[in-house]
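The protein record filed below.
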Amino acid sequence: MKSGKRLTRPARALVVGFAAAAVGVVFLLTGALDGAERTTWDWRVRLLAAPTEATDDIVLVLVDQESLELMSSQNGIDWPWPRSFYGYMLEFFHAAGVASVTFDVIYEDSGVFGVNDDLQMKDAAERFGATAYAIAMRNAGRDDPESWPDYVARPPLTVVNPPDAVLQANTYSGATFPHPDVVPYGAVLGDAQQENDPDGVFRHYRLVSFHLDQPVPTLGLASILAADGDLALEFESGVVTVGRMRIPVDRQGRVLLRYTTPESVDDETGAIIPAYHEWYPAFDVVISGFNLVTGGEPIVDPALFSDRHVMVGLSAAGLLDLRPNPLNPRAPGVTAHATALDNLLAGDFLRDFPTWGTIVYLVLVTIGAAFAATFAEKTYTEALVMVAFVALVPLVALAGYYFDYWVPIVVPLVGLFIALAGANVANYATEGAERRFIRAAFSQYLSPSVIAEIESDPAKLELGGVEKELTMFFSDIQGFTTLSEGLSPPQLAGFLQHYLTEFVEIIQSEGGTIDKFEGDAIIAFWNAPLDMQDHAALGVRAAIRCQRRLSELRPLYLNEIGFVDEETGAPGVGREIVTRIGLNTGRVSVGNFGSRTRMDYTALGDGMNLASRLEGANKVFRSTLMISHATRERLGDEFRVRELGRLQVVGRAEPVTVYEPMTRADYDEHADLYSVYDTGLRFWYNNRLDEALERFRAIADSDSPASRMVEQVEQWLERPPELRRGWTGVVSLTEK
C-alpha cells in the first residue's frame, strides 16, 4: 500500500505548533486576554507574597473605624479630626526617633478648628523635619498652568534622561497642594495619585510625576527623600537607576510592585490588618503623643517606631480611601505607597516579562506540545502529554515569579490548548484514518502486534523485507485428509474454527505472529515485527502449551460426530487428533511480500523450509514436537530437551540434530527413560547396532521414539554387511 502524499509527522507538528503560536501572538499583541492574565497574576501574588528584608522597616498608622469610634465616644470629636492631632502624632514620632513620617492625607483646606490648630501640626512637622506630604497631581489646563507655591520647597529630586513616553504620561499642569498653615517649607511633597490597571487593581506604581518641568516623587519615593535628602533618578532602556539601585520599569516609567504579604481582616472589629507591615490605630498614637506633650505616659511604646519609616493613612470605609490590590479588594490606599517604599528600600521589584520573550516562550510551548501530541501513540500517553504541558505553564509562571518576572500564563495556555487540539485533530484526520483502514483490512489476517507495528509506521506496508533471526513454528494434524473426508463441510469448518482458535490464542499470547493457515496447518514465528530477546523460549513454550491443550481437548474431539461440549465448545469428529509441530531458529527475510494489490506479512528463506521439514520429520521418530539444534542453542534454561537423532532432510547437504523439548518437571519424571534412550543413541551413532537395539528395546513399550529406533536398527541389521558401508548414523527424510 502506498499512502498519498502527506506531511510527515515532524512537518505536521511544526505546522500545527506555529499556527497555534500565531494565534497566541495575536491575542498577546491585541491584549484580548489581558483581563484573564491579570487575574492569574493576582493568584500568584496571593500564593507567593512574602516579606522583604525591608518590610520590618516600615510601620503604618491607620485611621481605622475603631479609632473614629473611640475618638467620638471618649472625646466627643468626630471626623475630620483637628490638625493638632497630627501634631501630637509628630511629637510622638519625634520622641520615638523615626526615620521619616509620610502623610497619605491631603490637607488642601484650612482645618475646621482654626489657624492655631493648623499651625500646631506645621510647627511639630518643622521641629521633626523628615516629613512628606501628599499632593494630588492634576491638569489645570495648558492655558492656565499653576505655579509651584512659594511656601514649600521644590522636591530635592533630579531626573536624568526621562523618555518622552514617561513625560507624556506623567506630566501635569497643576496639583492639589497642602494648605500653607499645615505644611512646613522643608517638607517633601509627593504625588499620592496612582493609575490602576484597567480592571481597577493597583499592580503598577509610578516613581515620578512632573509638575510642568518640576520632577515630583510619588509618595513612596518621597519618604526616602524626606529621610535622606537629595536623590537622582536616571532613566535608561527599561531601567531607572536610583543611587546604586537599578529598578526595572515599563515604557511609562512604572514599576511592578512586589506586594509583601496577604492582608487579613480582624474578626472582631472588621479592620484591615496588614500582616507584615506592622500597623497601629491612629487613636493610640494620638493619645500617646498627647500624653507625652502633657507629661503623661504614652499608651504605645515609642521604641516600637525607632528608626522606622512611618506612613499615616486611612482605612475606615467611610473615609473613601480603600483601593483594590492583588491581595485585597478593599485595601487602604496607603498600602500601595508602603509597598513601593518597601521595594525601594529592599531594592526588590518585580518586572513584566518582555513581549519578545513571551513570543519565544509561546513558540517553544506550542511547538513542543504539538510534537508531543503528534508522536503520542497511546491514549494514556496523550493524557500524560496534556497533563504535563498544562502543568508546565503555571509552573514556569511560578518559577518566573521566583526570578522576579511576570511570565504570562493565559496566552501560553491558549496557544497550548490550540496546539494540543490541532495535533490531535491532525492525527485523527491523517494517521487515525490510515490506522482505521489498516486495522479493518488486516485484523483478520495479522496478529495484533503486527497491526500495531504497521499503525505506528505505515511505510512497513511497502513491498520487501529485512533479514532477521526468527523462531519459526509449523504445525499439522496427522491424517487430516482422512479426517476431512469423513466430515461434511459445515462439520469440518466448525472443527477447524475451534481447533485453530485454541492454538492461535496460545501462540499470540506468547507473542507469536501468525503467518498464515494452510488448511489445518498453522505457520507462525517470533521476533518479528517486534524484537524479542527470548523468541526461541517463547516459541517452544507456545508449542508445549498447544500440545498440552490438545491433550485436554482430544477426548472431546474423539466423541461422535455432532457432539459439542457445552463448556469448551469442542466439536466431536470421531477421530483421535494428533498434531505434529516443528520449530527452527534461523535468519530469514521477513516483511510484506506479494503484489501491490495483495500481499502477506510473512517470512521467506531456508530457515522456514527447515521448520516445515521438522514438522514432517516427527513421523520419522514418532514424536509430536521437534526442534532444531539452532533453536536448542537459544532456548535458555527454562526447558530441557532430549536428543532424538540426526536427520538428513530433503534439500540440505548437512544433517540436522533434532530434539524434543519439554518442561523440567516432565523431563525429571522420565529422566531414567531418557538416559537409556540417549545411551542407545550413542551406540547407534558409533555403529554398535546390537547394543543400540538392546537399549531401545528396553524402553520401546514406554517411549514412541525408542520403538521407532528399534525398527530403524532392525532394518539396518537385516542388511548384508556390504550394504552397511559408509555408516553415518543419520536418519534420512526422503519426503517433505
The radius of gyration is 47 Å. Residues 410-442 form the longest helix (33 residues).
